[in-house]
Amino acid sequence: MIVEDEFLIRMDAVDMICNAGFKTYEASSADQAIQLMDQHRDIGILFTDIDMPGSMDGLKLAAYVRDRWPPVVIIVASGASGVDHMMLPTGASFFSKPYQTSLISQTLRDIAGRYV
Fold first, then answer.
1. pTM score, two decimals?
2. Which among 11, 32, 42, 50 could bridge 78 via Cys, Cβ 3.0 to 4.6 Å?
3. 37 close to 43: Cβ distance less than 8 angstroms
């Protein structure tokens, strides 16, 4: 699941993750992401931006997902400086924007390898 409010950044992330061999769902807000996660039980990874409009930002979404769907792997990305890793849910990964596509792809393959 890719959650990003900026359309072009979201499309780049979808392309990156599809090219790494993963099925993707996409959402432009945390509210939309939660609806999709309720509908699609096959979502195993959340890749979210922090700054988004709506009822919650990406950090609150990550905490919500960790509480509601504990097995989901969480990856948080942001261009904001000063993100404290203590703000992330247990086990979540953080990548600064702009991130290297190859690094994200490798991280996703590593995650998938743990579940094979």
1. 0.88
2. 50
3. yes
